[in-house]
Amino acid sequence: MYLAKIKPNIFATEGVIEALCSLLRRDASINFKAKGNSLVSVLACNLLMAAYEEDENWPEIFVKVYIEDSLGERIWVDSPHCKTFVDNIQTAFNTKMPPKSMLLQGEVARSGGDLSAGSSPHPSLTEEEDSQTELLIAEEKLSPEQEGQLMPRPRYDDLAESVEEYVLDMLRDQLNRRQPIDNVSRNLLRLLTSTCGYKEVRLMAVQRLEMWLQNPKLTRPAQDLLMSVCMNCNTHGVEDMDVISHLIKIRLKPKVLLNHYMLCVRELLSAHKDNLGTTIKFVVFNELSNARNPNNMQILYTVLQHSSELAPKFLAMVFQDLLTNKDDYLRASRALLREIIKQTKHEVNFQAFCLGLMQERKEPQYLDMEFKERFVVHVTDVLAVAMMLGITAQVKEAGTAWDKGEKKNLEVLRSFQNQIAAIQRDAVWWLHTVVPSISKLAPKDYVHCLHKVLFTEQPETYYKWDNWPPESDRNFFLRLCSEVPILEDTLMRILVIGLSRELPLGPADAMELADHLVKRAAAVQADDVEVLKVERIQLIDAVLNLCTYHHPENIQLPPGYQPPNLAISTLYWKAWPLLLVVAAFNPENIGLAAWEEYPTLKMLMEMVMTNNYSYPPCTLTDEETRTEMINRELQTSQREKQEILAFEGHLAAASTKQTITESSSLLLSQLTSLDPQGPPRRPPPHILDQVKGLNQSLRLGHLLCRSRSPDFLLNIIQRQASSQSMPWLADLVQSSEGSLDVLPVQCLCEFLLHDAADDATSGEEEEEGESREQKAKKRQRQQKQRQLLGRLQDLLLGPKADEQTTCEVLDYFLRRLGSSQVASRVLAMKGLSLVLSEGSVRDGEEKEPPMEDDPGDPEALRGYQWLLRDLPRLPLFDSVRPTTALALQQAIHMETDPQTISAYLVYLSQHTPVEEQGQHSDLALDVARLVVERSTIMSHLFSKRSCSAESDAVLVALLSIFSRYVRRMRKSKEGEEVYSWSESQDQVFLRWTSGETATMHILVVHAMVILLTLGPPRGAAHVGSPVP
């Protein structure tokens, strides 16, 4: 061994090789009876390996001795000590050997040899001999790096053909011998296993495999051979397709064998990318043949598990092949598909399968197909069956539970619904782009196919072929498949198909179908599923384009005449409700575009939000605007009528030569002006009824009101402001199922006011005759009011109070304090009182003592604690001070109640921000106007001064405001221009005896003079130092 390592060339001579190979051959004439017989082979192998390690081209004799030993006693072929040499010889066969973990053949004796094979057993080695073997090849123990160099390398590239010829001849000779089946050597099977790199060997082996697998003596090596055949089936040539064809015909019953067979099928699929399609095709065709293999379904199950994405596609291609047949295979295909789904436990990617069915095929058999129309109709039918087959037992159970109002297994149901929606999207794509290139279908067939995939066709078309689904499940299955979301692409394509002149679906049918699908999807709405998600604003134009009226092309209109844009009335008034539903489900894009650019659609949105279907809409509160809208509609209608008559006149002149009048016009009743971005049109009464019905069933108003970005509800509330009560808001809050967080604070404030008004009108006394239902409703409303009040107080006083919400809540009420309607002012005060006072009690009793700067808190002003005590205690009072002061400065000019004005003045004297001179001047002027111009209020306040603490408090407040103002104005710098001088001068220049000067509005001076005539208040100390 040492010599062979250092001088390999000595051993690489022909004589030495012959000699060593003769040792490996175990020539029968030489009888090794001496002890240690296998050591000779081990030594010879290792000497030859050492001699030829660096050589690329090995002699053919090595293969011959390898085959002889493989078929014989396998003394050195299986010996672990000769593994490197054997592995290098095996490179001649290009066989991918199964890893040891996959080989079932038991561990062969370490010395090699299989006792049951060959002519005579050889004795096992004793311990002594084994140790000698270890010593003999001690040189072989190498470092990992050197081991890497000993990896087998191709040794027979130059002799590949002759080696292959020799091996095939040997194997044919062995296999063709006349011998009983039982007599086949296990070693032959092992040799076949290691030579499966040759396609001829695979084909020879596979034809006999079933027989060998069923032979108990050969089962294990036969299983290894099966694995080797599958792993090496990697050319996808004619021979390998033949091999696959034989493989799938192998019938096995024992479970152990069957499990191993399925493992081998997995290896077969991994061996070459095209094996998958071929296997599926052969299995399906075998299933439909007279000699069907009982294991077919299990093979398909394995295939579908192995390639869950690709296998359904290939399965679909086989179904396409079946449907191209001259004979009608539809019934057989339906039955086969049902069987496959049932046996594979529904573990099929239905969407991938359906998409596969819809792929365009370019093979000759498809291009020259005889029954193209039948093919399309049948594929449509298989698609419908596949969608219904997606209903597993779990989906069925979840659907039944949902019908009963139970939320059980919802993920399963939602997953199924989304699967159907995706398949329908693909099917509409197929009908739009692929089908027209296959065949020009008759319009009736095309429309039938479109309706069928969308489950809008007559029920019997789904089960007429084979009565599946069974009668008990029929309606339920069809409903489950139809009550699904609609994807944007599906909807857009239906509209595009309707607009296309080449496709047989007309605009009216497309509109009808789109309308049906949108409403059907909207009815499935739930919080955990998006049923009608649309991103593209172009949808609005696509829908409106379907309504357009096109005059006959063969008619010549007068030169220079521009026909008006007209729409077919029935389609036009079908389009708006359809878009209303889409807008309600997509407020952030479609809804926003509708609100800003399409006035008619905006009007319908407002109608469903306010639940008021009158025209003009109730959101227009100003009588003048309402009249203007009605007049504009009349003008538009008149102009529309004239345009249509003129247009029809031109059409008639070019064809029938008939004179068109209003009574003889055919188009007048059928057409409408198409100006979607123009003024809102009056909807026909039946459309308003339809919109009302849609709102009740789909809760469109609720969906639109719930949108905070954009905030349609807030927009309406702010437009209406304090001009009118909004009873519809109360219904909205009432129906908002505890979700007060989603409503804007303005909405909650309005509801509080509405409730306060209701309480005021109903009076305190309980109606004796109230029914139990009315009492329950009242209790429910009171509970809602408490809940709502709690929410508003939390926004103002809670830990999460922020500047924006505090301003929004108070702004809403404060704006109404200056309303011209008494009721509105009273309600606003009541609302503020509720929101602020309740909060102070809730925050703790320690806040009860009067504020330090409270001017004696006269009895009469006790009812205004919300303003004088609670409002300044708000955590974020500073952020609302300026707006509060401004609102009260305006309110003192509108308010008619002296007590209320008193409270406002006391507040203004204490809390108006007067840091800037402009603010201070505004305050002084507003109060002066009250004093000078509202003499009735003033006389009422101060006529009974002698006995009124309230009057004193007001006088103190007024004097405080003016005295601070005078002091400030006197301090202003000489050169500072406080007022800009103008022609109509209402400013006066004052000079005091002390030489100080000030410039003030004449009303302010007038007011101060009036106040000075009233004499000093009894609590003069409050005013501060008197003005000199």
UniProtKB/TrEMBL annotation:
<dbReference type="InterPro" id="IPR038902">
    <property type="entry name" value="INTS1"/>
</dbReference>
<feature type="region of interest" description="Disordered">
    <location>
        <begin position="111"/>
        <end position="133"/>
    </location>
</feature>
<dbReference type="Pfam" id="PF22929">
    <property type="entry name" value="INTS1_INTS2-bd"/>
</dbReference>
<dbReference type="Pfam" id="PF12432">
    <property type="entry name" value="INTS1_RP2B-bd"/>
</dbReference>
<protein>
    <recommendedName>
        <fullName>Integrator complex subunit 1</fullName>
    </recommendedName>
</protein>
<dbReference type="GO" id="GO:0032039">
    <property type="term" value="C:integrator complex"/>
</dbReference>
<dbReference type="GO" id="GO:0034474">
    <property type="term" value="P:U2 snRNA 3'-end processing"/>
</dbReference>
<feature type="domain" description="Integrator complex subunit 1 INTS2-binding">
    <location>
        <begin position="808"/>
        <end position="1019"/>
    </location>
</feature>
<dbReference type="InterPro" id="IPR053966">
    <property type="entry name" value="INTS1_INTS2-bd"/>
</dbReference>
<dbReference type="InterPro" id="IPR022145">
    <property type="entry name" value="INTS1_RPB2-bd"/>
</dbReference>
<feature type="region of interest" description="Disordered">
    <location>
        <begin position="759"/>
        <end position="784"/>
    </location>
</feature>
<feature type="domain" description="Integrator complex subunit 1 RPB2-binding">
    <location>
        <begin position="161"/>
        <end position="316"/>
    </location>
</feature>
<feature type="compositionally biased region" description="Acidic residues">
    <location>
        <begin position="761"/>
        <end position="770"/>
    </location>
</feature>
<feature type="compositionally biased region" description="Basic residues">
    <location>
        <begin position="775"/>
        <end position="784"/>
    </location>
</feature>
